[in-house]
Amino acid sequence: MKYFYKNLIIAASLLTALSAGAIGSDATDLSLSVSPQYPSAGESFTVKAKSFSFDQVRANFQWLLNGKIVSSGKGLSEQIFTASKLGSQMAIKAIATMNDGSSFKAQVVVNVADIDLVVNPLTYTPLFYRGSPFASPGSAVEIYAMPHLFSGGARIAPKNLIYEWFQDGNKSSAQSGEGKNKFTFSTMDAANASYEVILRASSASNSVSVEKSIKVRPVSPQVLFYEINKLTGRKNLASSSFSLRAGNAMSLLAEPYFFGLASLARAAVSWSTNGAVIETTGENPKILELTASENSISSTNFGFSIEDTKTIYQRAAAELTITVTE
Predict the structure, then answer these.
(1) pLDDT by residue (tens digit) across 214-240?
(2) Which of the residue ranges 133-137, 139-143, 153-157, 277-281 would you say has the lowest mean pLDDT?
(3) HEC letters along the chain
(4) Confidence of residue 28 (pLDDT cuts 50, 70, 90)
(5) Largest Cα–Cα distance in the chain?
(6) Which of 1, 55, 310, 325 is the most exposed place for a label (fewest CB within 10 A)?
């Protein structure tokens, strides 16, 4: 009998913990839900009270935040709050009182936490590129998590957190676990695809948790042209139209943006004009060296293409025009 009684106490304790904040003997008569479930600092969120035991429209509700009354009124079954500063804890309590004097209570604790997700597509961008690289079809993507979770006012070390990674609704057990704040996946070699990655980070005891999602939308690789000079280097602005004086020389660089690094390493490149392939002799096949004849005037179109033949979408092509003047 004592053994059964102990098990009963343990089971009751677990039920109370899992009820996400319901208090008192009437825990099942009133429950609270938070939306969004994991608000960030300064973000508004809604707490809704729900019950199947009484008429919420006729009940007098009282809402308390950390023990202080913030609002009250008949039928006031939901309340909007603003998340406090990062690391704070908000104890939200709802008390519903009936006309006959009976009351129902529930409480939920909101731990204000956050996660910064940094997307790092393993695609090529030039050193001078100031923006963030984009993933492309068939490329690899890394996502790093920088969590901000607190317990007792102190920040929990990222290495001590439990990370649960999900891609498009499927949990990646191999990449989830303690201290695993990095997630890697490969995009499909297909057009118009998008991916949703969700991370749930929690303390070892699961007393504090936060969830964040991010969407990755690959773009097609592209080529931009730049004029380069052996003395001054590459010009800042890309163009598809260049001018060259007769008797002078010019060097043009084709930069393939957002190619997967693995594809770029084995990609084949080619220059052409009027349907004929141009043989490049320099060390860098992406550089086209041109010299205009004396007293010549012309306008010529050139094409550049780069492709990884082992894929469908790791490829790009572009054209430029060279106008030779006196």
Answers:
(1) 999 999 999 999 999 888 888 989 999
(2) 277-281
(3) CHHHHHHHHHHHHHHHHHCCCCCCCCCCCCEEEEECCCCCCCCEEEEEEECCCCCCCCCEEEEEECCEEEEEEECCCEEEEECCCCCCEEEEEEEEECCCCCEEEEEEEEECCEEEEEEEECECCCCCCCCCCCCCCCCEEEEEEEEECEECCEECCHHHCEEEEEECCEECHHHCEECCCEEEEECCCCCCCCEEEEEEEECCCCCCEEEEEEEECCCCCEEEEEEEECCCEECCCCCCEEEEECCCEEEEEEEEECCEHHHHHHCEEEEEECCEEECCCCCCCCEEEEECCCCCCEEEEEEEEEECCCCCCCEEEEEEEEEEEC
(4) low
(5) 109
(6) 1
Statement: residue 66 has pLDDT above 50: yes
The pLDDT-based confidence of 92 (bands split at 50, 70, 90) is very high
Q: Per the CATH hierarchy, to which homologous superfamily does domain 2-111 belong?
A: Immunoglobulins (2.60.40.10)
User: Model's pTM, two decimal places?
Assistant: 0.81
Closest CA to 203 of 144, 145, 151, 166: 151
> What's the rounded mean pLDDT across residues 39-60?
95
The CATH label, of 2.60.40.10, 2.60.60.30, 2.20.25.110, 2.40.110.10, for the domain at 114-216 is 2.60.40.10
Cα 277 to Cα 144: distance, rounded to the nearest angstrom = 43
If you average pLDDT over residues 96-125, what whole number do you get? 96
Residue for token pair 């009270």: 49
CA distance 159 to 214: 22
152-183 CB burial, b ≥16 within 10 A, e <16? eeeebebeebbbbbbbeeeebeebbeeebbeb
